[in-house]
Amino acid sequence: MSNPESRATASLKRLVVVGVGLIGGSFALALKRAGLVAEVVGLGRREATLERAQRLGVIDWGTTEPKAAVAGADLVFLAMPVGQTRTIVQTIAPHLAPETIVTDAGSTKQNVVEAFYLDLPDHLARAVPGHPIAGKEQSGPDAADAALFVDRKVVLTPLPENDLEAVARVTALWAACGAEVRTMTPQEHDRVFAAVSHLPHVLSYALVHELAGRANAETLFDYAAGGFRDFTRIAGSHPEMWRDICLANRQTILAELDEYLSELAWIRALLMSGNGDGLYRLFAAASEARNRWAVAREQATEGPE
Asked: Does the model's pTM come out above 0.85?
């Protein structure tokens, strides 16, 4: 973003963040740090959360009134749980100026695209769906981090109706946050992330829930160590957010669950038959694939020297 022309293209007079938690707050802080936004307005459901975000410097002021928030906005960033998408889009639609760009951070995209088509039919040129691939278990404005998106991927799923300038501006803003921007179709996005994000969260929640319901749960958790910590880390994530993601992408997640259940059935059969060679081959193949991914990811993050 050192190019003055690119900075001028990305620069915002007013950014409206709907949902001032981890993702929305981090986006605001990153653009503030880059010097690309003059004013950040938070739109949310709870006055206390908005006041906290203001005290932390995440936003300049906040409101629960959509009309007051989006008036004169250059960009509206939807960063609330995806289950609220239709309601929020319907609420802000009457107050959007023709030039205002609307983009989002939803972990599912087909439902967001549907909301845009249904509720922003006259604003599709400026409605650009997106998804930053970043996060942590903490939530709320206290979790906001200006560096959250550095060296992370952001997927945009542009609509055929999108204005190229609007897509370019959203791309430039994410680049200013330190992110690498890629594009997919909404369908491809939801298939990919059902496998590598949504399914792992479901499995992590399921294991913790099952163990916590046992009579000896206290003893189990007392002896849980590194393996349990690593596998269940994401079960500490925001429950409302992940409930909404699972419901929004449920058909694809169900297909992924069926694939996983087939794999578990195969492992069960290997255990039942005492097939050590089969277990070794499965574990070795998985270990190789996982280590290959980890090395490639580390190299991509480090980049060329």
From this structure: yes
